[in-house]
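Slide 14.
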Amino acid sequence: MLRIFAVLVSAVCLAFPALAVDARIKKQLLALDPAERMEQTCDTEAMSRISKDKDKFSADKVIAYTFGDPIVKEDSIRAPGAVFRSKGEWYRLSYECTTGPQHVNVRSLSYRIGEKVPRNQWGEYYLYD
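Slide 15: predicted structure.
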């Protein structure tokens, strides 16, 4: 259920970036536990920035934990084993993100895009088109 919500929030935020923290979405995010909320907020921001910053990518999904567990602190998350999907392909990603205390606003985000994940490894990591 939470993953379905994350996909919906991600889709809305990509289509309407200014709505990323509107009252309706904020209410939905606040219904999540704080760690999940921070992860979803940071994943969505990473997806948005990758699509804006890098011409060749159109990110539509970010997963923080594919190649390793994220390191979560009070208002920050470091996801060295993340991935993102763009145009039907998966790419390794690492990011560091800091949010406000409610975990609905990103205060800082840095990321690094890695290599494309070979298709023959997708099943092993539950990555799909």
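Speaker note: The mean pLDDT is 85.
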